[in-house]
Write a structure and sequence with these properties.
This protein is of the alpha/beta class and 207 residues long. The chain has one domain (5-206): Rossmann fold. The chain contains eight helices and five strands; from the N terminus they run E-H-E-H-H-E-H-H-E-H-H-E-H. It has helices at residues 17-30, 45-55, 64-88, 99-109, 114-125, 140-149, 161-177, 191-206; strands spanning 5-11, 35-39, 92-96, 132-137, 182-186. The chain has a five-stranded parallel beta sheet, with helices on both faces. The longest helix has 25 residues, at 64-88. Bound molecules: thymidine-5'-phosphate. Thymidine-5'-phosphate is lined by residues 13, 39-41, 71, 96-97, 101-102, 105-106, 154, 156-157. The site of thymidine-5'-phosphate has 14 residues, from helix 4.
Length: 207
């Protein structure tokens, strides 16, 4: 059976993950790799509908547990319908966010028990992890400002700075725990510089 490679991009708001994911996918396609570019929550019809529920600013009453379960539900569908089939076809799957975001946002950010998050992750993904994760690192204020400039507002972005600081720390803790899988790239640099750095890391992993 052919097997592809699974790459995720992670980070707080406004780090340029989506742009970098697109640039990486384009670069790899030019190099002859078959790629599948996707995002969480999203990537399938059902997961995209769940994304709308999760990110609507009208849903400010959403319970943290509802939030956690919905991110997991979207992920189950995403893995089954999109990620696994693409990997079976030997593609390089690039996802804008995956389960590290749940640990960072719902675990460190919301304060839900990491044990509970882990057991739900086991049920939802079988503890599937990307082969490689690029963590785009940026200070919270810069990230939130960047998103304001492009008028990007969703329910989680509306949380206060303290929340986003906790999320950022969560990502850094994850990176410290799994340095082989999670590579930190400074997102404060120019877009093309960040892109070149990501390409270097990914090409090394693809060899
Ligand atoms: P984004 O992909 O545009 O950044 O929007 C997704 C939002 O959802 C972002 O605020 C991070 C948040 N999120 C979680 O809180 N938990 C998760 O598991 C995932 C995938 C995203």
């Amino acid at each position: 059976m052919k097997k592809g490679i699974f790459i995720s991009l992670e980070g707080i708001e406004g780090t340029g993950k989506s742009t970098q994911a697109k640039l990486l996918s384009k670069h790899l396609s030019k190099k002859g790799y078959k790629t599948a570019l996707t995002q969480e929550p999203g990537g399938t019809l059902i997961s995209s509908q769940i994304r709308k529920v999760l990110l609507s600013t009208k849903h400010h009453r959403m319970d943290y547990m509802t939030e956690l379960l919905l991110y997991n539900a979207a992920r189950v569908q995403h893995i089954k319908e999109k990620i696994l089939p693409a990997l079976k076809e030997g593609k390089v799957v690039i996802t804008d966010r995956f389960s590290d975001s749940t640990v960072a946002y719902q675990g460190y950010g919301r304060g839900i028990s990491l044990k509970l998050i882990d057991s739900l992750d086991k049920a939802a993904t079988g503890r599937m992890r990307p082969d490689l994760t690029i963590l785009l690192e940026l200070d919270v204020k810069t990230g939130l400002m960047r998103n304001k400039h492009i008028n990007k507002v969703d329910r989680l972005e509306l949380e206060d700075i303290k929340f986003h600081e906790k999320v950022r720390k969560g990502f850094l803790k994850l990176a410290a725990k799994e340095p082989k899988r999670i590579k930190i790239v400074k997102a404060s640099k120019a877009l093309d510089e960040v892109h070149r750095e990501i390409v270097k890391i990914v090409e090394k992993a693809l060899k």
